[in-house]
């Protein structure tokens, strides 16, 4: 059974950097069948796709965040990561990681349970 | 970016009713459309992808249709566990984009 779990600080200072980890079990992040994605959801708002990474290290980012975001992976740890710099109140959200299917991209399944990130001033 | 517009934004229905949610893309996306269900306080769960293919384990009362720019999600014979928020999402091109959501409430 495939399982994803987000971890990281729940509180980040404004202008600071968010670092999140997604730990994957039940499948290898080095599989050529999948992308690995980050998505976020501000409280009470809709979902926003942040970006994804393929096992080769190739990435796709949302242009709205491209200057501030970086996604990487560690095959030895079976984890992938999100870094978001220059945090503001607008970045407060529940952050989810999810598996995406390479050959039918956009099939986000499963998702992690999500981690709430608050931005302090 | 491709804009996804869902309607209605909320709907009230009773157990046993049939509900239809629509999703319109700002440009043609072929059938690269997913539907997700998000119960309150939980992560989204994939129901349908692409467009009309029900995922394993999803009850057959859920169905999807459409291609091009117009899509629908129909839930027949509503069950108590179906009351949640539903999102459509396109994957025809990056960045993936989601609709604003449709909240299905108990009448």
- Indicate the multimeric state: heterodimer
Report low-confidence residues of chain B grouped into runs of 5 or more. Answer: none
Taken from the alpha-carbon principal axes, the silhouette of chain B is: globular
Strand runs of chain B, count: 10
Structural class computed from helices and strand pairing of chain A:
mainly beta
* Overall average residue pLDDT of chain B: 97
Largest sheet of chain A: 7 strands, mixed
Mean pLDDT of chain A: 97
Structure description:
The complex is a heterodimer of chains A (121) and B (107). Chain A contains no helices and 11 strands. In chain A, strands 2, 4, 5, 6, 9, 10 and 11 form a 7-stranded mixed β-sheet that branches. Helices cover 0% and strands 54% of the residues of chain A. Chain A starts with a strand and ends with a strand. In chain A, strand 9 (93-101) and strand 10 form a beta hairpin. Chain A is an all-beta fold. Chain B is built from no helices and 10 strands. In chain B, the strands form 2 sheets. In chain B, strands 2, 4, 5, 8, 9 and 10 form a 6-stranded mixed β-sheet that branches. In chain B, strand 6 and strand 7 form a beta hairpin. At the A-B interface, strand 5 and strand 10 of A face strand 8 and strand 9 of B.
């Amino acid at each position: 059974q495939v399982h994803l779990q987000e971890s990281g600080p729940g509180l980040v200072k404004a202008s600071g950097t968010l670092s999140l980890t997604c730990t994957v079990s039940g499948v290898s992040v080095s599989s050529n069948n999948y992308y690995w994605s980050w998505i976020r959801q501000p409280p009470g708002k809709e979902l926003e796709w942040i970006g994804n990474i393929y096992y080769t290290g190739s990435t796709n980012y949302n242009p709205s965040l491209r200057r501030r975001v970086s996604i990487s992976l560690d095959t030895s740890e079976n984890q992938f990561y999100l870094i978001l710099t220059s945090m503001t109140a607008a970045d407060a959200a529940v952050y989810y990681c999810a598996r995406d299917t390479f050959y039918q991209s956009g099939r986000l399944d499963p998702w992690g349970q999500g981690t709430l990130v608050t931005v302090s001033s | 970016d491709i804009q996804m517009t869902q309607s209605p934004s909320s709907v009230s229905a009773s157990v046993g009713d049939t509900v239809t949610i629509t999703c319109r893309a700002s440009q043609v996306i072929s059938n690269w459309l997913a539907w997700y269900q998000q119960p309150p306080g939980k992560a989204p769960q994939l129901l349908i992808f692409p467009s009309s293919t029900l995922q394993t384990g999803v009850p057959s009362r859920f169905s999807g249709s459409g291609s091009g720019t117009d899509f629908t999600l129909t839930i027949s014979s509503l069950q108590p566990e179906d009351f949640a928020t539903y999102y459509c999402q396109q994957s025809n091109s990056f960045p993936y984009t989601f609709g604003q959501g449709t909240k299905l409430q108990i009448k």
